[in-house]
Amino acid sequence: MSNDEKVVSLKRNKSHKAEEKSVKNNELVYCSFCGRPNTQVVKMVKGPGVSICSECTMIAVQYLILEDKMPTGEAQKILDAFWSKV
Q1: Beta-strand pair 18-22/50-53
Q2: What's the pTM value of the predicted model, to 2 decimals?
Q3: What is the percent of the chain where pLDDT is above 90?
Q4: Beta carbons of 57 and 45 less than 8 angstroms apart
Q5: 17/10 Cα distance (integer angstroms)
Q6: Which of these, 37, 30, 33, 21, lies nearest to 61 by C-alpha position?
Q7: Helix (H) and strand (E) counts in the chain
Q8: Of 24, 53, 61, 73, whose CA is between 20 and 30 Å from 83?
């Protein structure tokens, strides 16, 4: 998987809709939460002034799901599938 496929940039256009584009030229993008570069993570989402890697995203999702103490069966399947690939 090339770095172009690993980083997705969410850029606001004039109509304020999020526009997705791949980051080109092997640009290093660092996660604003854990500090790892896109070369050390599965995927990276780059927003205006902030980036988050797939691992930090899943930690946040897991926290939000587990805050309710018991994840649904579907939510648990998603978490299990992600963490088994990392």
Answers
A1: unpaired
A2: 0.61
A3: 31
A4: yes
A5: 9
A6: 33
A7: 3, 4
A8: 24
Range of the domain at 23: 3-85
State the residue for tokens 């790892």: 36
Could you tell me which residues come within 8 angstroms of residue 75 by beta carbon, excluding any fewer than 6 positions away? 65
Q: Does pLDDT of 50 surpass 80?
A: yes
Give the sign of the dihedral formed by CA 75, CA 79, CA 84, CA 86.
positive
Q: How many domains does the chain have?
A: 1
Cα 6 to Cα 2: distance, rounded to the nearest angstrom: 7
Residue 33 clears pLDDT 90, i.e. is over it: yes
Give me the residue label for tokens 């927003």.
47
Strands (E), the chain: 7-12, 18-22, 44-47, 50-53
pLDDT at 66: 75
